[in-house]
Amino acid sequence: GRGDIPAETWEKVKNHPCYSEQAHHHYARMHVGVAPACNIQCNYCNRKYDCTNESRPGVVSERLTPEQAARKVMAVASTIPQLTVVGIAGPGDPLANPEKTFKTFELIHEVAPDLKLCLSTNGLVLPDHIDTIKKLNVDHVTITINMVDPEIGAKIYPWIFYRHKRYTGIQAAKILNDRQLQGVEMLAKHGILCKINSVMIPGINDQHLIEVNKAVKWRGAFLHNIVPLISSPEHGTAFGLSGQRGPTPGEMKALQDSCEGEMHMMRHCRQCRADAVGLLGEDRSAEFTTEKIIQMD
Length: 297
Ligand code: CLF
Ligand code: SF4
Known about the structure:
The chain has about 300 residues and is of the alpha/beta class. It has a single domain, classed as TIM Barrel (Alpha-Beta Barrel), CATH 3.20.20. The protein is about 35% helix and about 20% strand. The chain has 10 helices and 11 strands. The strands form 2 sheets. The chain has an 8-stranded mixed sheet with strand order 10-9-8-5-4-3-1-11. Helix 3 links the parallel strand 3 and strand 4. Helix 2 runs parallel beside helix 3. FE(8)-S(7) cluster (CLF) binds next to strand 1, strand 3, strand 4 and strand 5. Its cofactor is [4Fe-4S] cluster.
């Protein structure tokens, strides 16, 4: 229910299928896959598919131009009246492709000003873009934060590429984490709703995610979404190849329960693809393929 959520926040939450458990039965979201590049490497990523920030291995996702993305939004909006949110969540990191990502948001706002804009990022360059995000009326930003301890981070991220330089190991994880937490604080300060996604990796960061939960809560994050590592050799992730397992549903629930009370926990995430369309749990992306969108030219 609405609980203790302030009125202004409730306005942003009530129609968003990810931010409100109730809304996800009634409202749809779509992603437009306009962002191919990434500026970090996660051991669980499979670049052949979508950003595992928000994705399940599936078919190779589309790469749309901003113009094609806007056209796709129009096509989906006229077919699925429950559409309330358009997100950019990959296939790489949206903020590693800032021109494409921001141009897309601009065009969508022109053609469909009522749709809410949503952005999902690893957070490395988020602090550099807060003003633009605010200016473009993006009300919802998700940061994937898997650690607040660089020693743990070094096991998850082999490298980052930051300000024209490659960093590895603990140094890379420290920069990434500083930037992510700074991003959370800046979003809160600007009144942009911030959701944290964390990938639960047994034996690496499982118990540590309780620390992450506390760190993001006091910096002003609104919602925490812990998702299970999807790891298997056939999906080709470094973790999958090393035999790293994902958590069991029981382990997931126990961790979510330990975090509950600190802040709102999201428990209905469907780990969408970067080109997902429809209600959560229903994937209608096949109806709106790049081919079909291009044919609308
Ligand atoms: Fe997309 Fe993410 Fe916005 Fe939702 S998905 S960018 S916040 S509109 Fe939602 Fe999908 Fe889970 Fe993401 S169910 S993977 S949390
Ligand atoms: Fe892959 Fe996303 Fe991590 Fe980049 S941030 S390496 S695209 S999972």
